[in-house]
């Protein structure tokens, strides 16, 4: 790709490159042969490719020729007029985006050229899903509180009565008493598992997410994922995340365990990645405050994917595709993520399932204050 500033100066559009580069919306310029002549930083992030890589490519190197985006570009060129399309699926070995809105317009200073703007229309859907996950978490919390209050006390009475009856019962009746106690214990265990959803104050601090991931990887590699390859693709410059270390371990351990159970035991692969993204800004209900979530952690596997009819309710309690599963693992993940004010998304297709966790940075000065507090602690 030629130097974008020189390119626009020669095209009679000085300063345009600087302006387009500052836009948060992905913008690319295609010449008459549909080669990439310009891509702003937002487009590089959106397409997952650098400007230097795009410079070597045509649009049809990125997407099949019969897909809707190349067709839109040809329509713009044929009509010499702007054309928009919505809810596009950009799918190829290099790229997978759903719900994309595209707008193409001719560039009069460059005959045959088309300026494309791309917007991820799924952002609103992500936020809606996040609100649904929070609602599911609140529902699970209410259920946990109800179960703890209404079930635990009478359950203890039932078990105690069964123990007393066992002492004076016949051999046949003693077996029934033991059965009652065993079932009472099973219900108690289930109630205690549900109790993890109850509302508790969340203590947060600056956490090195790579140390958390290393801890999770060691647990997995010496236990349930000992037979699988676990790869790491980390951004070493990533700043700390603002969270609770133990709960972050719990979140990621659940995601890695789900991935390990989904993949082929012989060819399974799990990839843990971290990256710094511009992130999503979430509005806090009832407040003007918006939370910035630029720190991204992903757990990716090469399993068969998640059925489409399950994805929408994936994080709701008691939704599971596992035989014998209780459907509480991902519901708990949703609850803990909501407690962090973070965002979790799932993108799944055959051969590639990605759980993407977006987290906040520590508030200004929090990491320094935390470091000073540790220095002041007595040895």
UniProtKB/TrEMBL annotation:
Domain Histidine kinase, chain residue ranges per copy: 146-363
CDD domains noted in UniProt: HisKA, PAS
Record SUPFAM superfamilies: ATPase domain of HSP90 chaperone/DNA topoisomerase II/histidine kinase, Homodimeric domain of signal transducing histidine kinase, PYP-like sensor domain (PAS domain)
EC assignment: 2.7.13.3
UniProt-listed Gene3D superfamilies: 1.10.287.130, Histidine kinase-like ATPase, C-terminal domain, PAS domain
UniProt KW keywords: ATP-binding, Kinase, Nucleotide-binding, Phosphoprotein, Transferase, Two-component regulatory system
TM spans (from-to): none
InterPro entries: HATPase_C_sf (IPR036890), HATPase_dom (IPR003594), His_kinase_dom (IPR005467), HisK_dim/P_dom (IPR003661), HisK_dim/P_sf (IPR036097), PAS (IPR000014), PAS-like_dom_sf (IPR035965), PAS_fold (IPR013767)
Reaction catalysed by this enzyme: ATP + protein L-histidine = ADP + protein N-phospho-L-histidine
Coiled-coil annotated spans: none
The protein, known as: histidine kinase
Organism: Pararoseomonas baculiformis
């Amino acid at each position: 790709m030629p130097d974008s500033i020189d390119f626009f100066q020669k095209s009679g559009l000085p300063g345009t490159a600087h302006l387009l580069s500052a836009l948060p919306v992905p913008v690319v310029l295609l010449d008459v042969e549909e080669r990439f002549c310009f891509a702003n930083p937002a487009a590089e992030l959106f397409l997952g490719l650098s400007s230097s890589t795009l410079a070597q490519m045509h649009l049809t190197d990125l997407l099949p020729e019969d897909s809707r985006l190349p067709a839109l570009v040809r329509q713009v060129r044929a009509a010499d007029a702007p054309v928009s399309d919505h809810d596009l699926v950009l799918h190829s070995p290099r790229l997978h985006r759903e719900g994309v809105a595209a707008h193409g317009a001719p560039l009069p200073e460059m005959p045959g050229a088309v300026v494309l703007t791309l917007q991820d229309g799924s952002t609103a859907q992500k936020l809606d899903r996040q609100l649904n996950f929070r609602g599911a978490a609140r529902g699970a919390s209410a259920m946990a509180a109800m179960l703890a209050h209404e079930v635990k006390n009478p359950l203890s009475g039932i078990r105690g009565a069964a123990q007393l009856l066992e002492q004076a019962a016949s051999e046949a009746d003693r077996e029934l008493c033991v059965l009652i106690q065993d079932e009472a214990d099973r219900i108690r265990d289930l109630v205690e598992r549900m109790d993890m959803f109850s509302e508790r104050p969340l203590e947060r601090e600056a956490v090195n997410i790579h140390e958390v991931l290393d801890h999770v990887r060691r647990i997995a590699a010496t236990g349930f994922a000992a037979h699988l390859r676990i790869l790491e693709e980390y951004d070493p410059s990533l700043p700390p995340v603002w969270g609770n270390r133990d709960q972050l371990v719990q979140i990621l351990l659940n995601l890695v365990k789900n991935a390990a159970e989904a993949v082929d035991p012989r060819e399974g692969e799990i990839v843990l990645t971290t990256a710094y993204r511009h992130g999503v800004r979430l509005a806090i209900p009832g407040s003007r405050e918006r939370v910035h979530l630029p720190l991204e952690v992903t757990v990716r596997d090469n399993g068969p994917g998640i059925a489409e009819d399950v994805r929408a309710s994936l994080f709701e309690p008691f939704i599971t595709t596992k035989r014998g599963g209780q459907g509480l693992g991902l519901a708990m993940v949703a609850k803990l993520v909501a407690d962090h004010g973070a965002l979790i998304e799932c993108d799944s297709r055959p051969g590639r399932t990605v759980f993407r966790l977006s987290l906040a940075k520590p508030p200004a000065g929090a990491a320094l204050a935390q470091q000073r507090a540790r220095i002041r602690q007595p040895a």
